[in-house]
Design goal:
By secondary structure, the chain is an alpha+beta fold. The protein has a single domain, classed as Fe-S cluster assembly (FSCA) (GMP Synthetase, Chain A, domain 3, 2-Layer Sandwich). The protein contains four helices and three strands. β1 and β2 form a beta hairpin. The termini are far apart.
Length: 108
């Protein structure tokens, strides 16, 4: 089944809502506001590809966090499949955080 652009946009919004429920255990800010999600691509068939990173390659949740993201996004209505790519290029830095995240962490 092919989805319309509007349906794809709705799926994208739902995915972002779900990403905002996933937290880095060391920082009380969700991974979306932290800027750990580099890209979310959704095909016409609702196959989702997420490119994300971690705050550090040795992050204690390097094993579990990507799986949590994959599992939660897979539960979004109409999502057919989720392909998650973990990358450390470019490496994450504090400048990638949203203003909201910086504010919450007292950096503004």
């Amino acid at each position: 089944m092919k989805f319309t652009d509007d349906q794809i946009a709705d799926i994208g919004e739902e995915i972002i809502k779900v990403l905002k429920t996933v937290y880095d255990p060391e920082i009380p800010v969700d991974i979306y506001e932290l800027g750990l999600v580099y890209d979310v691509q959704i095909s016409d068939d609702a196959d989702v590809k997420i490119v994300m990173t971690l705050t550090t390659p040795n992050c204690p949740v390097a094993e579990t966090l990507p799986q949590e993201v994959k599992d939660k996004v897979a539960e979004v209505e109409n999502v057919k499949s989720v392909d998650l790519e973990l990358t450390f290029e470019p490496s994450w830095n504090k400048d990638m955080m949203s203003e909201e995240a910086k504010f919450e962490l007292g950096m503004l």
